[in-house]
Amino acid sequence: MNLSSVNDTLMDTDDKSIHDVGNQTEVERYYRILEVSTLSIAIVGLVLTPVAIYAVSSLVKKDNVAPIFVINLLVSDIIQLCALTLMMTGDGIVLSISAFAYTIGLVASVGFMLCIALERYLLIVWPLWYRTKRPVKMCLLLCAAVWTLPLFYLVFSIVMGLNEQIDLFLNITVVLFLLPLPLLVFFLVGTFRALSASISVRAEEKRRIVGLLVLVLLIYTLLFLPCIVYFLVHSSGYEMPVVAAIFLELNPVADLFLYIFLRKGAVNQVWFCLCCCRKNRTNCHVIQWFE
């Protein structure tokens, strides 16, 4: 599941299904939209992600290992962004290598999203067990495992491709990418129930924990599921693969917002800004009404 497969869908078309739009064909128009959006997302992501990594690194503590998972997630995002840029500008061997790198970054990204949700769940639901298991050591082992899994997936994809089992490979990929969704929901519901019954956790801390899990779930649901649906329905049109690809490419940029729910006080500041904006909007409506 990567951008190269979407590009193949756009380029591998029947000549009869292509309609002229001005001086460009419909396929060329959609490919141009995909190219511009990809490069724009890559530029924004490559500028902001290193800044986010530096900011999150200052939050790493012995009793708070969630930032370590977020840092690894952002590193996987950088791999995706660099690979996307090369996939849009390169060809031949460069295109193949960048497609492999993008797959590694994408699979690792899903793994670290699961690790973030799992760490928050264990911290709240099983706090005694969590604190006695050396969370830093466990975190490093999980990070090593997550970075190893994409390599196995990559080898599996190559073997399936050589055996011309593309349809079977896509079906297995869809199943594998659907599995994190119920897990993320389970971690969110379990954590929310435990926090609701807890009186020792401050309200601001509860908002940060729940907000982090909700954001992870929203990122996966809104940005990953469209691509999964596309591979399930096997749409022959051009709109769906382009939309699915753009949504998937937005994943590295959306991950930047995780910093808000890691830094203490950031949630309250964002909430205060939203309340001020709403209050100003209400005052404007009142003034206009009296005028």
UniProtKB/TrEMBL annotation:
Gene3D superfamilies: Rhodopsin 7-helix transmembrane proteins. GO terms for molecular function: G protein-coupled receptor activity. Residues 45-272 form the G-protein coupled receptors family 1 profile domain. It is found in: Membrane. Keywords: G-protein coupled receptor, Glycoprotein, Membrane, Receptor, Transducer, Transmembrane, Transmembrane helix. GO terms for cellular component: plasma membrane. One of its GO terms (biological process) is positive regulation of Rho protein signal transduction. PROSITE patterns: G_PROTEIN_RECEP_F1_1, G_PROTEIN_RECEP_F1_2. It holds the Pfam family 7tm_1. It is a multi-pass membrane protein. It comes from the Eukaryota. Belongs to the G-protein coupled receptor 1 family. This is Psychosine receptor-like. It comes from Betta splendens. The lineage of its organism: Eukaryota, Metazoa, Chordata, Craniata, Vertebrata.
